[in-house]
Design goal:
The protein is α/β, with parallel strands linked by helices. It has one domain: Alpha-Beta Complex (inorganic pyrophosphatase (n-terminal core)). Helices cover 42% and strands 16% of the residues. α2 (34-51) links the parallel β1 and β2 (54-60).
């Protein structure tokens, strides 16, 4: 129950930050993996449905692995190399599955994002971000975004559910590494969709 209340409280804060904004740049880690991709797609859906915010998805490096390229193709979304976007043209910037100052994302070190959602240990720079949800005991960032969708009363469409499931399975090595009950519940929910 405590985790549900925590997610609802975080969702209320995130929704308040999104209200009145028109654009959000969602930045994934360099060479995004399925967890980053799934989380990005879910945040896009959440921002669109809860606040009517238009989102663009960006990444550093390349989407190199064949299965990751196939996932992006399946989702039918435009993922942009960070070099092709201008972050200053967006009302808000979010980092997913990475944090500022960690060196594994394309965000300039002098630019602090507005939103950070991640499952890795918190970085020093993240403590200065307006909105953070960093749960290092969770196995995947996709799990956190699934919880946000649930708290908002949103049922992910099949492509989003697929991306979240693949993200959770990938980051937990098929539920064999650093898995929590929340990861298992999120995975089971996506399988039920």
């Amino acid at each position: 129950m405590r985790k549900v209340n925590r997610t609802k409280s975080k969702l209320a804060r995130l929704t308040a930050l999104l209200k009145g904004k028109s654009s959000l740049l969602i930045v994934m880690q360099d060479n995004p993996d399925p967890d980053a991709i799934g989380a990005a797609v879910a945040l896009k859906e959440l921002a669109n449905h809860t606040a009517g915010v238009s989102c663009s998805l960006a990444y550093g490096g390349t989407i190199g692995r064949a299965e990751n390229r196939e996932l992006v193709s399946y989702l039918g979304l435009n993922f942009h190399p960070f070099t092709q976007v201008k972050p200053e043209q967006f009302d808000l910037v979010a980092l997913l599955d990475t944090q500022p100052g960690t060196g594994n994302n394309p965000l300039p070190t002098d630019m602090l994002p507005d939103i950070v959602i991640d499952h890795h240990p918190i970085s020093k720079m993240s403590r200065r971000v307006a909105f953070t949800d960093i749960r290092s005991r969770c196995g995947a960032t996709s799990t956190l975004l699934w919880q946000y969708l649930c708290a908002a009363g949103l049922v992910p469409d099949i492509p989003t559910a697929t991306a979240l499931l693949y993200g959770i399975l990938s980051d937990t090595q098929d539920i064999g590494r650093e898995v929590t009950q929340a990861d298992i519940e999120a995975m089971e929910a996506q399988l039920a969709e």
